[in-house]
Amino acid sequence: MAAGDTGVSICSDALILLGAKAISSFNDGTDEANACDRLYPDIRDSTLVMYPWRFSLKKVELAQLIDAPTSSWRYAYQLPGDRLAAPRLVRESASVGEPVFKEWEIQGDQLLANIDTIFIDYQYQPGEFAWPQYFVQLMKYMMAWHLAEPITEQRDKSVFWQQIAQGFPAENGRGGYMRTAMHIDGGNNPAYSIDDFSLIAARF
Question: Which residues contact 67 (CB under 8 A, 6 or more apart)?
């Protein structure tokens, strides 16, 4: 984990990459600090939801609400207040290997479904101190990209750091250092083997 990292330190390093002055606070009153203060939260959250980073996932059982939804759905569940986007996975139980459940809908801050137990995987913002180093590095490149034009007034620098962060447009945001970070993160999600399946048993 990247203990000690903060939004300010990430933005400061991004500014240094651009040849600009580092900041000590989002409230420094400088143009650099003001730009970081405005841009950083949105870029942080959008980068988190670009990919199901393992460190940003929670698994929880949703609380079923007393009042039934006024729709074709039978049950309503309260979604967590710290979620960044729609659930990544919805299941009927917390058991490993449980099939993904696909018949549900989001309305406001509620998940609607016709089953009486819901478990979800969802993404939240765990705090920079808990981020792995590869994601911290990715965020520095992402901030350098988005800060380049407003800070340096050079479009070429923005294009350069975009390519460092995410590669070329044809790579659909999955190139550059993003690809490296995704590969590292993928190592935290072991593949599950199928231990009991009728076709496998028939072969033996």
Answer: 76
Phi, psi (rounded to 5 degrees) for 57: -100, 140
Mean pLDDT, range 82-99, rounded to an integer: 89
Domains in the chain: boundaries: 7-52+129-186, 56-123
Q: Which DSSP symbol is given to 62? A: P
Token match 């730009």: residue? 35
How many other CB atoms are found less than 10 A from the CB of residue 92?
15
**Closest residue by Cα to residue 139 from 169, 164, 175:** 164
The 10s digit of each residue's pLDDT in 50-69 is 999 999 999 999 999 998 88
The pLDDT mean for the chain works out to 90
Greatest alpha-carbon pair distance for the chain in Å reads 72
